Amino acid sequence: MTDLGTRVKSFRLQQKMSVRELAKRAGVSVSYVYAVESGHRGHNIVKLGKIAKALGVPVSALWEGSDEQ
């Protein structure tokens, strides 16, 4: 899950977006974003879809190269 979290954080930072802003745009909690980025959570595909949409990337972009597909 670390790869997933790394990708989420990378996309977020590329857009100069704070964790709080991403959470607000995605409609998820700030703690959820922190948990995903740190590798502690990430299997809720609905929430990941919201995060991907808020980042302007397809959900598949968050999983590319991951062994967890």
TrEMBL record:
What residue stretches are annotated with the HTH cro/C1-type domain?
A: 8-62
Q: What keywords is this UniProt entry annotated with?
A: DNA-binding
Pfam families to which the protein is assigned, alphabetical? HTH_3
Does the UniProt entry include the keyword Coiled coil? Answer: no
Q: InterPro entries annotated for this entry?
A: Cro/C1-type_HTH, Lambda_DNA-bd_dom_sf, TransReg_Diox_bact_type
Official protein name in the record: Transcriptional regulator with XRE-family HTH domain
Question: Which species?
Answer: Alicyclobacillus cycloheptanicus
